[in-house]
Specification:
This protein is α+β, with helices and mostly antiparallel strands. It has 4 helices and 6 strands, in the order H-E-E-E-E-E-E-H-H-H. The termini are far apart.
Amino acid sequence: MPAFLSGALGALLTYAWMSYAASETSSERSHVLERPMLVGANAEHAYYMLPAGVTLYWDGDMPEGFSRYKAYFNVEGQRLVEREQTVPGAITPATLQPIYKEELLDLLKVMKLSAADISSIIAGAQFTDEGRQQVRAVLDASKGTDGR
């Protein structure tokens, strides 16, 4: 009988520990992007943006000093081809960063951004008053050439 009790107690403690560990590593915390953000830094000036309004789900804080988030996408109209991971469980995240003045000036040359996107980007803390004025000057100059 004592072996049964110690086994049951061991199972109960294991269950309690695993439940606690699971609750510590999973989170209900999330963040909805208030402004578009660049996906990855790119020296070739090929830009990819995650739009404002996307919900990011917190996955953890890393010892290297950054936080990791998950995003979920519904893929419509095309079945993506899955492949086995070469290293099971390995994660190769992209970097998400705010859009700075230099990137925004480049973006304005290659894509049309909504007035709301531009306003939210330049409202970010990474923009100085001088940077905001430079972006507005580029926008004002482009109104005469392409009708935006």
